[in-house]
Amino acid sequence: MAVDADTLHPIEASHLHARRERVFLVFAGIFLGTLAMLNILGISRFIKLLELETSGGAPLVFAIAVGVLPYPITFLCTDFISEFYGRKRANFVVFVGLLLNIWVIIIIWLGGMLPGFETIDPTTGAIVRDAAGRLPVFFEIRALTFGAVTASMIAYMAAQFCDVYVFHFWKRVTKGRLLWVRNNGSTMISQLVDTTAVILITHYYAHALPVDPAQPLARQLALFILTGYAFKFIIAAFDTIPFYIGVHYLKGYLQLDPMKEHDLHDNDQPE
After folding, report:
1. Degrees (nearest 5) of the Cα angle 73, 79, 83?
2. Is 36 part of any domain?
3. pLDDT attached to residue 145
């Protein structure tokens, strides 16, 4: 496809190069935008998926945090980036996601430190709560975000790097064949790492899970992990379809053969 060179920015070596970089920007943008959104909304609300009555009287409640809803899309994005742009670039996007986490926390912290229009108790210097005993909405969200940030960042780093590593591990083992194996194998393992870390750290560090003190804690934590992982597992299984379609289309659009454009042995070298 002929393109007038005058239409290209000097940094764009060619029309094809510009196209490849723009597609990368779309995947990286969706990944980072989703990450910022789920870190703010993360545990602000829990969604009840299912409630089962048991013979013991205490029902089994299957629930997920609202932040879990968009999270599986981040693994699909890193799989696309890994497939077409290589392990190093996928890891770099994960690292930028960590910086974004820190940036979100800085802004939320700063927003709470600067003077606002809230009513302040002159004796304690604290913000006056409303009749229901709640702080202004911003400070409720701020407390939830701070409470879950450690869990989010540790789980995020462990799961995303795990996803990228396992993806390329299966790509080497299968010699580039069986696309569904590396897509599902990497996502499902990394989602287990993520879900377990988030639930355990959120409870033991942030104390932000809606647990019932009258019920056995271990069973409730296991149920949270099982529910979150089951949801992510199902989504991961279904995202194989858009991954296959996307890879098939993008191979032609980007004029990239994932097995030839970046050497597999390069992924084994230290970064």
Report:
1. 150
2. yes
3. 72
Cα–Cα distance for residue pair 237/232, rounded to 1 Å: 9
- Is 175 part of a structural domain of the chain? yes
Average pLDDT, the chain: 77
Structurally, how many domains does the chain consist of? 1
Instruction: Note the pLDDT of residue 148.
Output: 62
Is residue 191 within 8 Å of 225, Cβ to Cβ? no
Q: Which two tokens stand for residue 13?
A: 């070596």
Query: Does any domain span residue 271?
Result: no
> In this structure, what are the phi and psi dihedrals at residue 116, rounded to the nearest 5 degrees?
-130, -155
Residues 50-100 pLDDT 10s: 777 766 656 667 777 777 778 778 878 988 998 899 888 988 998 898 888
- Residue ranges making up the domain that contains 249: 12-266
Amino acid at 154: I
Question: For the chain, which residues score pLDDT lower than 50?
Answer: 1-3, 263-271
What does DSSP assign to residue 57? Answer: S
Q: How far apart are alpha carbons 123 and 267 in whole angstroms? A: 61
Could you tell me the two tokens for 201?
Answer: 């750290």
Phi, psi of 223 (to 5 degrees): -70, -40
Residue 60 β-bridge partners: 52
Q: CA 82 to CA 229: how far, in whole Å?
A: 23
Report which of 253, 247, 270, 193 is spatially closest to residue 82, judged by C-alpha positions: 247
At 25 the pLDDT is: 94
Q: 3-state DSSP call for residue 242?
A: helix
> pLDDT digits over 250-263, tens only?
988 988 877 665 54
Say how far apart CA 77 and CA 34 lie, in whole Å.
10
Crossing angle (nearest 10°) for helices 137-173 and 15-41: 130
Q: Is residue 5 part of a domain?
A: no
